[in-house]
Amino acid sequence: MNNNIITRVDALKAELYALMNEMGERAKSELEIEPSSDFILIMEELDSAEYIVPVVGEAKLGKSSLLNGIIGAEILPVDLDVATSQALKVSASEKPRYSIVYNDESILYIEEEDILKISSQAVIDDKGLETRLNKKEIKWVEIDYPTKFLPSHISLVDTPGLGALYSAHSKITNRILPLAKAVIFVLGSDRPINVDEIKTVHKIISYTTDIVFVQTKIDIVSDWANNLEQNLRIITREFGEALSHPIEIWPVSNLFLGKAATASEKRSEKYIEKSRFLAMKFYLESILLEKFGWDVIIAGTSFGDELIGKAEKSLAKSILSLSDTSGSESHKVISENKNKRRKLEDEWGDKGYKRKKHIDSLARYCNGVERDFSQVFSERGDIYLKMRNEIEQLSSRKEVKAYGEDMFCLLYTSPSPRDRG
Where in 87-146 does DSSP place strands (E)? Predict the structure, then answer.
């Protein structure tokens, strides 16, 4: 995803939050109008800068290896009999930092080597809450790391592996799901999705219908493509009507992803294409920015207009009710309300300067996106020329088929003109 688009959306959200906060405060203090619960909910969403995305699936399918590939280092445990028995939250940062976050939001900073010990020695009580010697309930272990492929606004949460042998782990995962903006559901490449996994997806849908299906270990299992087709048929049959977006399954090589994170720039580009990861990343970001970026901005603008309408009606009603009364106090209130009404019109009316400023910001965002897409599809654009050159070098049906499957990823790896400038 073009980082400039993400930056613009975040800036729009911050701008709209400030405007709605001003509207709400003035409506309460000047007109005694309480903003609706939906208005407050949208404000909370606008103020949210982090998108939490749990990574869910049965044990030993490569969830932790996938996150290690994204991080670019072997930090999450993968070699234990039950590798992850804690929730491990991975976020991008400038410097490595590791901590335990308890349910009371207190924090204990730890060293990298402590992560393995904590994950292998977790004790799960009958409520599904992990405890240590101090008996404080752990929310998750936070891993802040300078990752190459994880955007700053997305945090991935590696959840304990599910399945019949690890039923207690589902309690930990169920505590994380209510926080999810979307979920990455990891499938195996050596078999189709099973009954227990289908039940888990049904559980996830009760919290969010934004699920990104990822099939890992495609570099290990030769028959992964056939199992992907079976998974797609089963998932479409079971959940086709329940999910927010058309169902896709994104194959990812954890091996090549890990190599891409640590290789030189030239080699990294080849490895990342082989990993197929960026297409999945683009899809996830698109979902998050659509639902929790653009859609929230539109909803916030709508609820702002609704509050302005209530204020206009309240002032008009007050002026009308006092117009037939006499006395200096009544005339004073009428005069004050007329001034408030005039100010409201100047700021938020059809030609109000604050409304115009916000609309201009939306227009700049839309124009920027349009320029990015024009660059992709213009015959003189760098991305078009790059792809045309690559297509002209294809010499067999096999190469054409492979290029077609990876085209989405290839589009993504080419930066926009502003990213380059």
Answer: 88-92, 97-102, 107-110, 123-124, 130-131, 138-145
